Amino acid sequence: MRMKRTIWLSGALVDSQSAMIGALSPAAQFGLSVFEGIRAYRSEKTGALNVFRLNEHLERLFDSCSLVGFCSPYNMSELESIIKMVVRANDYRSDIAIRVAVFVDGEGSWTSSEPINLFVAPIEKCRSDILQLKALKACVSSWVRIGDNSLPPRVKLGANYINSRYAYNQAKAFGCDLPIFLASDGKLSESTGACIFLIKDGRLITPLCTSSILNSITRETVIVLGGEMGLLVEERVVDRTELYLADEIFLCGTAAELTPVGQVDQFKIGDGSPGKITLALLKQYHAAVSGELEQHASWLTPI
Ligand code: PMP
């Protein structure tokens, strides 16, 4: 266990053990907190630590703030400087994850928009090991994904994850690793903290951004990398039964990277182990985050 972690809270660098927010805060009571999970990867060649797609994460954080009615306490470039400062203060040697949250502190209600606060907390987290990767067992949840006219999944709001929690608890009780959500129209949506791709006859298929999903940065990255690898990419409405007939399935997200799925409900996907195209895409993803793809140098922000 890491003993000492320096985070940013209430405008200063503080030890995470002494970092406090209000017990009566709307963030604690109602999940009134928008956040981003960001990764920084160390280049195996140069040893430099680079944040992956920082601008896109910050833009999404600002979109979340705007939709939920928060005024971010910092602008984009101030936030970027704070993130760099916090990471440097911890002097990590490995790859890391960085959690950034804008939330309502104080003692108000779910209607409150102040006092607004921010934390930035880095956590050691290594990239996945392709050689150790196992395919997960998933089930289609009987819980329906939240929708744009109720609790928009496009907003990365803490409270949204309670929908994920119900589905996750059910999947675990059924002996699965994770659930897959259908949207209210019965079509494929996403998983609890990751989007989903199917591979069928060499085509890469994923639900639309309007299929009750978070507008995932990894999803967009995979679409670009898949296209460059010569795969045909289809962003479209996807039926549940297409899952069962897929050659390969993987989840994708900043934390999940690319996570293979080897079974959905009673149906084995391929031979039940991580698929060849999934692994090739993950290898390319690791090349991108490590700064080995010259054409995507702009995806990296050096610390
Ligand atoms: N969907 C949900 C609900 C998520 O929480 C995440 C993780 N942020 C994703 C999808 C994947 O998004 P991203 O690739 O931007 O991390």
TrEMBL record:
What top-tier enzyme class does this entry carry? Answer: transferase
The protein's matches in SUPFAM superfamilies, at most eight in alphabetical order, are given as:
D-aminoacid aminotransferase-like PLP-dependent enzymes
Q: Which domain of life is it from?
A: Bacteria
UniProt pathway annotation: Amino-acid biosynthesis; L-leucine biosynthesis; L-leucine from 3-methyl-2-oxobutanoate: step 4/4; Amino-acid biosynthesis; L-isoleucine biosynthesis; L-isoleucine from 2-oxobutanoate: step 4/4; Amino-acid biosynthesis; L-valine biosynthesis; L-valine from pyruvate: step 4/4
What function is annotated for this protein?
A: Acts on leucine, isoleucine and valine.
According to UniProt, the reaction catalysed is: L-valine + 2-oxoglutarate = 3-methyl-2-oxobutanoate + L-glutamate; L-leucine + 2-oxoglutarate = 4-methyl-2-oxopentanoate + L-glutamate; L-isoleucine + 2-oxoglutarate = (S)-3-methyl-2-oxopentanoate + L-glutamate
State the protein's name. Branched-chain-amino-acid aminotransferase
Keywords from the named record: Amino-acid biosynthesis, Aminotransferase, Branched-chain amino acid biosynthesis, Pyridoxal phosphate, Transferase
Gene Ontology MF terms? L-isoleucine-2-oxoglutarate transaminase activity; L-leucine-2-oxoglutarate transaminase activity; L-valine-2-oxoglutarate transaminase activity
What is the similarity comment for this entry? Belongs to the class-IV pyridoxal-phosphate-dependent aminotransferase family.
InterPro entries reported in the protein's UniProt record? Aminotrans_IV, Aminotransferase-like, B_amino_transI, BCAT-like_C, BCAT-like_N, Class-IV_PLP-Dep_Aminotrnsfr
- Provide the GO biological process annotations: isoleucine biosynthetic process; L-leucine biosynthetic process; L-valine biosynthetic process
EC numbers on record: 2.6.1.42
> What NCBIfam families does the entry give?
ilvE_I
Needed co-factor(s)? pyridoxal 5'-phosphate
